[in-house]
Every structure is written in C-alpha cells, then in structure tokens.
Write a structure and sequence with these properties.
Layout lengths: L1 E10 L2 E11 L4 E5 L6 H9 L6 E6 L2 E2 L5 H6 L2 E4 L11 H8 L5 H14 L1 H5 L10 H13 L5 E5 L7 H17 L3 E6 L2 H7 L2 E6 L2 E7 L6 H7 L2
Parallel strand pairs: 3-8, 3-9, 6-7, 7-8
Antiparallel strand pairs: 1-2, 1-4, 4-5, 9-10
This protein binds adenosine-5'-triphosphate (ATP) and magnesium ion (MG).
InterPro entries: AAA+_ATPase, ABC_transporter-like_ATP-bd, ABC_transptr_urea_ATP-bd_UrtE, BCAA_Transport_ATP-bd_LivF, P-loop_NTPase
Family: Belongs to the ABC transporter superfamily.
GO molecular function, one term: ATP hydrolysis activity
C-alpha cells in the first residue's frame, strides 16, 4: 500500500536521506529501526509531506503522493503520531480527540469513537482533563487515539515507547497488535526499542546514516546484522 522509491532529502548541504526505498503492505507492521540521528524522523516527515523531498517518489495505493501537502495526505488516509507526541497541552483530552475527527461526521464517526475508547479506556475516564496534565504515557496514548479517530489506512508512529513506563508500553503494544490483526491498516513503526518492535513487526528496515543498510522479514530480524546497526 505504501511504496517509497529512492528518496533523497537534504537539510541545506547535509544529505540526510540517501536513496531510501521501502514497501509496506496492508495489514502488516513494518518496523523502521536505527540509532539516534540516522534520519528516521526525517523520513517519516517526508512521508507525511511536512518536509519536501529532493528526489524520489512516495506512492500510496498506486497513487503518486510525492508532491501532495500534509492535509491532502491526511485526507487520503495517512495518520501521523509524531515523536514527542505533540498533543495540545491546553486543550482537554476530549478536545484533543475532536481535532482528530475534524474530517469525519455522522454515524461512522461515533462508531470509530467507540472503538477508540475501547482501545484506550484510560482516555475515556479523563475526557475533561487537560492534555498537559496527563502523564507522558497517557499523552502518547492520546496522540495515538487522535490519529486513529481519522480512521486511517496507514498509521505512522515515531518512537511511541520513548520515555514511557513499562506498563503503558505494554498497553500501546496491545493496541498496535489489535490494529495489525484487523488486517485493513498498514502500520509503520519507527523504534529504537528493539524488543518492542520485534514483538510487533512483520517486516523491518534498518537505517544508518540516511541509507537502508538491511531489511527483511520478522524471522530475519533477530540476526547479528541488525543488532550491529542498533547497538550503542
Ligand atoms: N530541521 C533540521 N535542520 C537541519 N538538520 C536536521 C534537522 N532535523 C534533523 N536534522 C539532522 O538530520 C539528521 C537526522 O535527524 P532525524 O531527526 O531524522 O534522526 P532520527 O533517526 O529520527 O533520530 P532520533 O532517533 O534521535 O529521533 C540528524 O543529524 C539531525 O541532526
Ligand atoms: Mg527521530
């Protein structure tokens, strides 16, 4: 459903993405792995259209979306949960969630909302609390819930476990597994926490200095080749 072909991106003179290619199939979870600063977030921003690309193509369900604006990509079904969550701290949980639903209305919207509350019961209990007063883990759950309310075909998660306590990491893992089992959504999971990614991913790619250095299926993920590029 998502195809990235020979993507190149620069910050000024720095060549940050160097011919990155990857494929993500519907119903699967693709882990994007790599150390700090290798270009993971940059790649995700290029997929969302937040950053322009110099060369290369991004295709969603056969359609070239390389030149589309972020809101156009969102309308086509891409949802993005940024690194560091970026929820609205001064808005309530409910208001934050409504932002995610801005493009949906009617019966479908309330069905989706019900599903999302089922996935994240803690949010339902905290609807009137300000986003900024939630714990980091709860804010991460809120950011994921907000993305899901747009009923995406593709969800992009940038390091959802970063700085989060183990019990909430488990909850987030459970939600990603349920989404994957639904089979109708593609999940691009950027992670540095190898065990978490290993539990959830069907396929993986490893970035190093802006290049894909190795990739494969779940069965190949445990190899030395991968660990070598992740170990600090
Ligand atoms: N706005 C920017 N302007 C210039 N350089 C940038 C900018 N954003 C990121 N970089 C640089 O580009 C490189 C890739 O950064 P990026 O944020 O994509 O890495 P990352 O793999 O997501 O790292 P992390 O795991 O720490 O989140 C880094 O060297 C970073 O310093
Ligand atoms: Mg990053």
């Amino acid at each position: 459903m998502l195809q990235v072909d020979q993507l190149n991106q620069y910050y000024g003179a720095a060549h940050t993405l160097r011919g990155v290619s990857l494929t993500l199939e519907k119903g699967r979870c693709l882990a994007l792995l790599g150390r700090n600063g290798v270009g993971k977030t940059t790649l995700l921003k290029c997929l969302m259209g937040v950053l322009p690309v110099a060369r290369g193509n991004v295709t969603l369900e056969g359609r070239d979306i390389t030149k589309l604006k972020p809101h156009q990509r969102a309308a086509l079904g891409i949802a993005y949960v940024p690194q560091g969550r970026e929820i609205f701290a001064r808005l309530t949980v409910e208001e934050n969630l409504l932002m995610g639903m801005a493009t949906k209305s009617g019966r479908k919207a309330s069905a989706i909302r019900g599903e999302v509350y089922e996935l994240f019961p803690v949010l339902k209990e905290m609807l009137h609390r300000r986003g900024g007063d939630l714990s980091g883990g709860q804010q991460q759950q809120l950011a994921i819930a907000r993305a899901l309310l747009a009923d995406p075909k593709l969800i992009i998660l940038d390091e959802p476990t970063e700085g989060i306590q183990p019990s909430i990491i488990k909850d987030i893992g459970r939600v990603i597994r349920l989404l994957r089992e639904r089979g109708d959504i593609g999940i691009l999971l950027c992670e540095q926490y190898f065990d978490f990614a290993h539990e959830l991913a069907d396929d993986f790619v490893v970035l190093s200095r802006g290049e894909v250095v190795t990739s494969g299926t779940h069965a190949q993920m445990d190899g030395e080749d991968v660990k070598r590029h992740l170990a600090v």
